[in-house]
Amino acid sequence: MPSPNREAVLVSTQWVAENLHDTDHVRLVESNEDLLLYSTGHIENAVKLDWVNDLQDRVVRDYVDKARFETLCRERGISNDTVVVFYGDKSNWWACYAFWVFKLFGHEHCLIMDGGRQKWVAEGRALTKDVPAYEATSYEAQEQDDAIRVYRDEVLARVNAGRPLVDVRSPQEFKGELSHMPGYPQEGAMRAGHIPGAVNVPWSKAANEDGTFKSEADLRAIYEGEQGLSASDDVVAYCRIGERSSHTWFVLTYLLGFENVKNYDGSWTEWGNLVGVPIEQGA
Amino acid sequence: MTPQETAELFQSVDPETRLELLLDYADRLPPLDPDYAPLRDAGLNMVHECQSPVFLMAETDAGTLRLHVDVPREAPTARGFTSVLVDLFDGKPVEVLASAPEDLVHELGLTQLLGMQRKRGLAGIYYRVRSALS
């Protein structure tokens, strides 16, 4: 079994406090669900990365291309050898999402600040509204790494082959119960339910109340003990748009040492709209 | 300001300034009437379409709309938009709400800035206010 290496991917708030002035080597990146949260105050020297405006293409439903990824890194003073430390709101959902995109384009040194913004604030640590400016770099990205991303055709093939899928949404979404009330906006999918054969492990099971990740023993009990997954399985994780599942992708890959985990970023907003694909409802 | 005037104000400025406007609104959201805090703490009247814990009750009293809202400071986008709604509709005749644009989020020029997912969250808040009309 490959050994997970928690220390290689997670840093504490204390580590960040001690290293935030080392801007020649370390770049703090705040990535939130909320568009405005960074502007209300952020960790000193941290740059903002918005999952919509920075990471997604505005016309095609896809991530930015290699050239635009390079530009966003260059503008933020990120070099190929920079240690990028991600943190954000919502138990680091969006930090994991940004981490995943950086891995997609081959960035080597990526870390997550365990506990995210919530823990930093809870500990009474300082925030600032000063937006840092860094000298532009000549960042060169890799071509996209398809080893961590999966598309719908491959998902369908996996369904037919009975290979593991982890649905990380809430049980209500998984079962296909209508979660919206009449007259309220739809959830963005024509059908409710889950991809056949998927097990339901809500992403939040991997997080503690304070936003930190659970211990390796606790995580093994959930994914291996309860769900019967093993580190040699190749696993696909999905949710609604691929953000909560990037949290689970991170957990399985880095905290449990699973060798072959992919994020299906099309997720339910793609699958639940596709014509003719199989869907299951109920627990 | 009327909904139309507010929409014109938001649309007349560049995207960066539009976000600053929304932040100003977030700062100005009045505190929740303490009488309604127990409802909020019991998890009632939360807007589930929104990813943030938004408490919102819309009531009418003799043709006047009353909004009781609370949005955490950790969710400034939802807080700012909710504050716009309070500014526009709280204490005003329900006719103001009835004649307001159905797609107010878009009219404020926020669609492109927010992306579809976040826009749905704010639209959910607005639908909740509009439910007071039915």
In DSSP terms, counting alpha (H) and pi (I) runs of 4 or more, how many helices of chain B? 8
Main sheet specs of chain B: 2 strands, antiparallel
Derived from helix and strand composition plus strand pairing, the structural class of chain A reads alpha/beta
What Rg of chain A is obtained from the alpha carbons, in whole angstroms? 19 Å
Compute the average pLDDT of chain B: 93
Shape of chain A: globular
Note the gap between the termini of chain A: 31 Å
H-E string of chain A: HEHEEHEHEHHEHEHEHEH
What best-fitting shape of chain B do the alpha-carbon axes yield? globular
Rg of chain B is: 14 Å
Q: What do you see in this structure?
A:
The complex is a heterodimer of chains A (283) and B (134). Chain A is an alpha/beta fold and 283 residues long. Chain A is built from 10 helices and 9 strands. In chain A, helix 7 (171-175) links the parallel strand 6 (165-167) and strand 7. In chain A, helix 4 (93-104) crosses helix 9. The longest helix of chain B has 15 residues, at 116-130. The relative contact order of chain B is 0.20. The interface between A and B is medium-sized, with 23 and 30 residues.
Question: Tags for this entry?
Answer:
heterodimer, A: 283 residues, alpha/beta, five-stranded parallel β-sheet, four-stranded parallel β-sheet, 10 helices, globular, B: 134 residues, mainly alpha, two-stranded antiparallel ribbon, 8 helices, 53% helix, 10% strand
List the helices and strands and how they pair.
The complex is a heterodimer of chains A (283) and B (134).
Chain A lengths: L5 H4 E2 L1 H7 L6 E5 L16 E2 L17 H10 L7 E5 L5 H12 L5 E4 L2 H7 L29 H10 L3 E3 L3 H5 L23 E2 L15 H11 L7 E5 L5 H12 L4 E4 L3 H5 L12
Parallel strand pairs in A: 1-5, 2-3, 2-4, 4-5, 6-7, 6-8, 8-9
Helix pairs in contact in A: 4-9
Chain B lengths: L2 H10 L2 H14 L8 H5 L13 E7 L2 E7 L5 H14 L4 H5 L5 H4 L3 H4 L1 H15 L4
Antiparallel strand pairs in B: 1-2
Helix pairs in contact in B: 2-4, 4-8
